[in-house]
Amino acid sequence: FDCHVNGHTTAQFHLNPDTRPQERRMRLDTTSLRGVFNQQIHGSKRSLRSIEDFTEFEQRTAYFNGDQSHAAKKGMNIIDRVQVSHMAQFQNMLDFPPAPKLDVATGRLDPRKATESEMRGEAIFFGKGTCAKCHTPPAYLDHQMHDLHLERFLYQEPGDGPIKTFTLRGIKDSPPYLHDGRCLTLEDTVEFFNIVLELKLTADEKTDLVAFMRAL
Q1: Interatomic CA distance for residues 198 and 32, integer angstroms
Q2: Are 145 and 173 in contact (CB under 8 A)?
Q3: How far apart are CA 148 and CA 179, in angstroms?
Q4: Which H or E run includes 209?
Q5: Are the C-beta atoms of 54 and 42 separated by less than 8 Å?
Q6: Residue among 1, 85, 15 nearest 51 (CA)
Q7: Strand 13-15 relative to strand 163-164, pairing
Q8: pLDDT-above-70 percentage for the chain
Q9: pLDDT one-digit tens code per residue, 2-18
Q10: Strands (DSSP E) along 33-131, which ranges?
Q11: What is the pTM of this model?
């Protein structure tokens, strides 16, 4: 829990340990472990298919920068699969943060509790903003990886490639955003997708969309 305080996150970043040369390594967010039981793939780009595999991967590589010789000097902590299973069972107990404005059955806003701005934002989320195509309630993710082809906006640089869909539940508590923290606020994140997906959202629509995301 040094990085995942209370099952959540300290918002720290690290360089992924398995890519070389150094200049091609990706900057990765310490994501929240809240609601990890509801996820079918793990890791921004690695698409590991069980929390056990991801736990073992992190234990063997992330803390030692992927360098086996340095890991041996520090003292490798190769844990056996029984311990990995116990760690995974604990992680699967970590639920999403409370969201009192959401209907417990559907994960959608309860109109009796939501503000007008949040309700308008929900309509944009499921409509003009097309957010729900990837962020499906009640967990607000689709267990898929998507390539936004950001090379369209870059000069002689590759894009990110396929990146997993992260859950939006509890998103207000885990800035900065995207897999590498390039967006500092939810407002920045909405503007990022407004540009990349060519949504043409108005200023008011973006404000309402952020209001809805803060209720998740």
Answers
A1: 29
A2: no
A3: 13
A4: helix 203-214
A5: yes
A6: 85
A7: unpaired
A8: 88
A9: 778 888 888 887 777 66
A10: none
A11: 0.84
